[in-house]
Write the C-alpha cells for this entry.
Amino acid sequence: MAAKKASTKRSGKSRRPASSEYRVRALAGRAARGEDWNPAQPAAAAEYPEINEPRPYATRYPIPEETFRALKDAAPKAKLPKSTAERARDSLKPKEEVSARATAAALAPGLEPVAAPSGSSNFAGIASTGWIPPDCTMAAGPQHVLLSVNSSLAIYPKAGGAALLQRTLTQWFSNVVQGMTIFDPKALYDQHAGRWVVLAVAMKNNPRASLHLLSVSRSADPLGPWRNYRFNAMVDGATATTNWADYPALGVDNAALYVTSNMFAFGGGFQYAKIRVIPKVGPYAGGAAPFFDFARMRNANNTMAFTVQPCHTFGAPQVEYLVNSAFPSGNFLTVWRITNPTGAPTLVRQQVAVSPYSLPPNADQSGGAPPLNSGDVRVLHAVFRGDSIWTALTTAHNWGGSSNRASIQWCQIRAAAPALVQQGVYGSARFHYFYPAACPDNNGNMIMVFARSGPGEFGSILYTGRRSTDPLGTLQPSALLKAGVAHYDRKDGQGRNRWGDYNGVAADPGNPRLIWFYSEYASAPDTWATWVGSSFF
C-alpha cells in the first residue's frame, strides 16, 4: 500500500445549506398479502421454464448511448482531474491463491494478519447459468450462506460443499409470477429480525409489466418456509406510470426494507430513480404490504439521481441512509436520509464533496480483445455501521503509465453531519480494478472484494481491507481469492463483454469480525463461475 502517514486528503466540506432543504413527497401504495413458499418442495423446472427477454431500453444510462460509448472509448487516454483522495498502490508481488491453501477456520483470540486480511472459509459458488452478466449477491446468516446470480439462488452451509438447495428465480417466485423475465437479484440477512430477504425485478414486453419481487423467510432458517410478494413497479404510490424497473438495490434498518430501482420508459431512456419504503410489519407477518414511494429525486446540481443505493444498516440510528454518485462523472456524493419509515416518511437530501471520479476504461484481459466491461461510476453497495456510511465505486485513474486504469474509489462518510472521514483510490498501473463491494466489521475495520484483470491476467477475484488503525485513505495489499484461467468473450446485444454488474459482500451476524464476499472469475473459455470467500482482522 502507499506508505504515507495519516493524511485525510478530504476533498471538501459537505454543502449542507445548499442541499438540506430539498425534500421529496412520499406516495402511498399497497401490495397484496404474500403467498407461502416452501423452497424444499420439488423443483418443477419443466413446468416453469426460464424466460430471458431483451431489456426494453434505448440506453442503460441517464445519458444517450452514443455519448456514453464515446466517453468509455476515450477513457483510457482521457485527461483526468486531479485526485484529492489518498492513493494506495496495490502490491504486485506474486500472490498465492487463497482458494488453494489452508485458511484460518477459527478466529483465534489475538490473531492478527501481517498484511492483507486473514482468509477464512471459502468454497465454490453457483456455476455458470448461461445468463450474462452473473450479478453476484449474497447474504450470511447464523448457519448458512445464501448466494444468488442471474437467475438462480442457492443455499450452502458455511463450511461449503454441495448446495443444500438450488432453484432458478423463476421457480422460486413461481407462486406469484409466471411468464416474465426475472433478473438482477439482491439478498441480505436482516440481523434486526432474524430473517432472510431476497429481491429481484421482473419484466415483460407484451403486455407491458414490471414487478419488484420480494421473498422473506419466516425464520432464521433459510431452508424453512418463506413468503413471496409481488409489488407493481409501474406505479409510483398508487399512480400508474408506463415505466419499468431496472438495477434494483436492497437495504434494511430496524423498521423497514428499502428497495430502489432505476425507472426506464419501455423502448426509451432513463426517466428517474425511485425509492420504495416497505415497513417490515406487513411482509414479516404475511399480511398485505403497504409501502411509500419517493420518485424523481434530483441532486443538488439539479441532475436526476441515478442508482440510489440504500444502506444495510447496523444498530438503530432511527435514520436510513442512501447514497448515489453523479453521472457520468462528478466530485460529490448525494446522501439521502429517510426518517419515520412506518408512518409518514420524510426524505431529505444532503451533499458531500469527494475526490473527482469519471468513467473507467474497460479492462484488458490476458489473451487480448475484447476487454471486460468495467461498468461505470454508479455506487455499487453501501453499509451504515458505527456512525458512518461506507461505499465504493469504479473510476479512472492514472498510476503513471501511458493509459488510465479502472480503479477503486472508496470513502467513509460520518453520516449525521454528513462529513467525509476518509477517502482513497486503489489500483495499479498493471491491472484494472473494478466492481468493488465493501463492508466494515464491528471494530471499524473494512474488507473489500473486487474484480481484477490485465494484459497478463484473466478475470479474477481479489480482496483487500484496512484496519481501523491504518493511515486514513489506505488499503492493504490485495489477496487473490480465485484466479481466472481462460479468456472471456460473452457480448450482449449492444456489444459489451459483460462482467459484473456487481459483487456481493455481507457481515457475519454471529461473528463481529468476519466478512463474507462473493464474485465471479473466468473458469473456462467464455465461461464464468463464482466463488465465495470470507476474511477477518
